[in-house]
Specification:
GO terms for molecular function: ABC-type transporter activity. This protein is mostly helical and 360 residues long. The protein has 2 domains: 261 residues, no CATH class; 62 residues, no CATH class. 66% of the residues lie in helices and 6% in strands. Helix 2 runs antiparallel to helix 6, helix 7 packs parallel to helix 10 and helix 10 packs parallel to helix 14. The longest helix has 33 residues. The radius of gyration is 28 Å and the shape is elongated.
Length: 360
């Protein structure tokens, strides 16, 4: 890290110097690019694969007059001459079921279990009127929950690089050189800023890639619903990342060896994994999801999901964003105090009370 010795850098200059150092270090690692490419591939896979592999019609055999019954149904029909031939196809697992004449009607032959998807096609469904029709169905909502949750999870776990770099600097004593050149708070701010800039770049790329994935999957009509949700997702996930990053920094500053990092990262892991699993479990419960969308640690995923499902208004998103921003400010102030109090302490794990105590 280049510094000017004749004139001490200001706080903002020192912060930017540290941010540049963090960004240059991270983008030169293979893990950074592998993780990002994996996220992009996963986005395409979750969007495209269900339409590629989930759209096949059930394959059935039909005999005689039953052929006319299945015409126009969402079934892949194979015509055969006799009931015995149809039954043989079912036993050979070449078809899911056989539809054969039965007196004046038809009956379905199956091997072990009733073929519910075939039966649904044969049963006359009554007209359905939706009182509050949604622009997205349950399947599309579930995919969106998984995508938003995975993106938050990937970037939240990516913040662990801040903890690892902090521990490395303490373990190698480089931190003593750094703090003689830049303020400790600038070191913390620079680490968070550098990783936040890289994360923002990745989030923007994913936000621009999502519409392409939808078009490839033949779901272009959803763009009108997805685009606003993505627009909200970017600020929510970025504020959430700053929140998690400050916690990762503190987790790293409390220990002096990489092998001890596991003892301080439990709470941070909970803050990262909690939103993902919470939204996965409760995305079909509007009341619980509404509460989660205003809790700072889960709002980053819950509120964009509610917006996508058209269960929240813009004012709710603004209120949630304001609560999240206020929480980030408080957590940053607390993290700054703990980071400053523990960074120069080496040896075993530093207790939070000792890190919080004023410097003697």
């Amino acid at each position: 890290m280049a510094v000017t010795t004749s004139k001490k850098a200001s706080f903002s200059q020192a912060t930017w110097l540290v941010a540049e150092r963090e960004m240059k270090t991270l983008v030169t690692t293979k893990g950074f690019w592998i993780g990002f490419l994996f996220t992009v591939v996963a986005l395409f896979a979750l969007t495209v694969l269900p339409t590629v592999f989930g759209g096949d019609n059930p394959k059935v055999a039909a005999v005689g007059s039953a052929v006319q019954v299945v015409q126009g149904k969402q079934l892949d029909v194979q015509e055969v001459s006799t009931v015995q031939e149809a039954a043989d196809l079912v036993r050979a697992d070449d078809v899911e079921a056989a539809i054969v004449p039965d007196g004046s009607g038809i009956k379905v032959l199956a091997l072990n279990d009733p073929p519910n998807d075939v039966i649904r096609e044969l049963v006359q469904s009554p007209p359905v009127e939706l009182l509050e029709a949604s622009a997205v169905n349950n399947g599309q909502r579930s995919v969106t929950v998984v995508v938003f949750g995975l993106v938050f999870l990937m970037f939240g776990m990516g913040g662990a690089a801040i903890a690892q770099s902090t521990v490395t600097e303490k373990q190698t004593r480089i931190v003593e050189i750094l703090v003689s050149t830049v303020p400790v708070r600038a070191l913390l701010a620079g680490k968070i800023l550098g990783h936040t800039i890289l994360t923002l770049g990745q989030v923007v790329v994913l936000a621009l890639t999502a519409p392409i994935a939808l078009r490839v999957a033949g779901l272009g009509e959803l763009l009108g619903v997805v685009a606003p949700a993505l627009g909200w997702f970017v600020p929510f996930v970025m504020l959430g990342f700053v929140l998690i990053s400050s916690m990762w920094a503190v987790a790293g500053s409390l220990v002096s060896r990489q092998e001890d990092l596991g003892s301080t990262m439990g709470v941070v892991m909970l803050a990262v994994m909690g939103p993902y699993f919470g939204v996965q479990f409760f995305h079909e419960n509007p009341a619980v999801l509404a509460v989660m969308s205003f809790v700072p640690f889960t709002a980053g995923v819950a509120m964009p999901v509610r917006l996508f499902a058209q269960q929240a208004e813009a004012w709710e998103a603004l209120v949630s964003l304001g609560i999240l921003a206020a929480t980030v400010t408080v957590i940053l102030l607390v993290a700054s105090r703990l980071y400053t109090g523990s960074l120069m302490q080496t040896g075993g794990r530093v207790k939070l009370s000792k890190a919080w105590a004023p410097a003697e």
